[in-house]
Amino acid sequence: MQIFSxxxxxxxxxxxxxxxxxxxxxxxxxxxxxNISGRIHAYSIVRQSDNIRIAVEILSRDLPGTRIxxxxxxxxxxxxxDKIPEEFPSHEMSDAIGRMTGHATTxxxxxxxxxxxxxxxxxxxxxxGSRAVATRLGRDNAIYPVVTKGQVFxxxxxxxGTPYNTIYQPIFSPNGDVIGILSAGIxxxxxxxxxxxxxxxxxxxxxxxxxxxxxxxxxxxRQILGxxxxxxxxxxxxxxxxxxxxxxxxxxxxxxGTMARSLVVLQQGAIDKLDIEQQADETRRSTERERQAxxxxxxxxxxxxxxxxxxxxxxxxxxxxxxxxxxLTTPLAGKFEQLRLDFNQAVDRLGATLAQxxxxxxxxxxxxxxxxxxxxxxxxxxxxxxxxxxxxxxALAEITETVTISSKRADEANAMAEEAHQSTVESRxxxxxxxEAMSRIxxxxxxxxxxxxxxxxxxxxxxxxxLNAGVEAARAGDAGKGFAVVAQEVRELAQRSATAAxxxxxxxxxxxxxxxxxxxxxxxxxxxxxxxxxxxxxxxxHVRSIALAAREQSxxxxxxxxxxxxxxxxxxxxxxxxxxxxxxxxxxxxSSEKLVELIGHFHLEEAHRPASKSAAA
Length: 617
Description:
About 75% of the residues lie in helices and about 10% in strands. The chain is α+β, with helices and mostly antiparallel strands.
């Protein structure tokens, strides 16, 4: 922005405002023209709906079987025709529509062979001047995929090389097939021409408004900002040293008035500054006279001060050598007399304080010696106690370790007793199972014995039957010989079966006796195991009690051992503290002796000596 500082304020502000206004007007005109042009194009597209309404009314009048359906907004929603004529001898219908709407209109018919829409009647002409009938829509046209789906197409389209804003309304057959199109359109050239006329009018208005605004802005800038150059000239005059000029525009209430009043304040400040400089010259001459008087008085004060310093220095030199009997006896001049009195009083207080301090040092030395002896005795006793506690802790640690081992052994014995008790219980179960098995064997032996009795009876009956068969065979003579042989074999077989059954019965009897003996022995074993189990249970209870007691003893001894260890640590700490206290007392004794020796270097007045002697006594 440094570039604006090269020009005068009023022309710069006026030119800047004009440039800003120019950009604003041009931008507004451009946006307004584009907006109006866009709205004109959009309105031209929407206006085609009105053209379609006019066209369908004429179409329904001239072509019977045409049915029109309107939507809630008044626009054509659906056109249904029985059929579209193949030829139109006269194109008066399309011309009438064109005269009423002022726009292009065309009626297309669907051709199944070419799969395309053909113009049947239209008021559109080709470039050679002929009416554009018997021309196709074109399958590559953007309108084709829309209308073949039964939808309305709205928007720009190129018709025979000329751009239009169009609407294409599909025509349906009674069964719902698309059989044609009714279109209406206005050339984009006409729309653009109208938009150009509107833009030209807006541009002219913009130029006129800009010229008027420039004139008004120049007048207003000169009226509002015209005072700034005059104020700048007044400021230059003031800077040159002329403070007599009257500042203009002080009555205005705007920023120029504020600047004018500020210049008046600066002018008055410059005048006040000149007055102050004159007063400063007079004050400087008066100050010079007062300075000379103060220097004379200062010389007298320095002589008095040097006298006081000499006397006080000599006294302080003797005081630094330890002589507290020194006093300033010669009076000093003026304000230094109080310094002499204060020095004498300070020396008196210092002597009295050192005398008391000496007496206190003697008492500290004697008391510290006694405390050192006491701490020595306490240190020795603490060390002996620490040794005893250390031995006790070691013994308790050994006892604790022994009890811990015993507790572990008791726990192991308890576990072994538990295992033995479990084994006896399992053995008892085995014996019980064996007794039950013996009982089942005894029962099975009884059942086998009964079966053998049955076999014995069968063998006896078989023997009788064989005997009867032999008797009958003997009666039969020769014819019964073979049967007699068979009867003899059956009889022998029955006898062998009876003999075998007897032998088995004897064996089972012996087995039953043995089983009964085994049952008695197993029962006896079970009773013995039961007694052993009860004894093992009792032993387990005792071992568990012993293990629990040993564990509690081990826990108690561990606590005692920890307490003794803590006491040992505390005792060791106390012994260290006693030793440290002994060392401190020794240091205190040495410091008190050194302090007494240092105080002995001071030479006190006789007035302080009786007090120190009485204190020492």
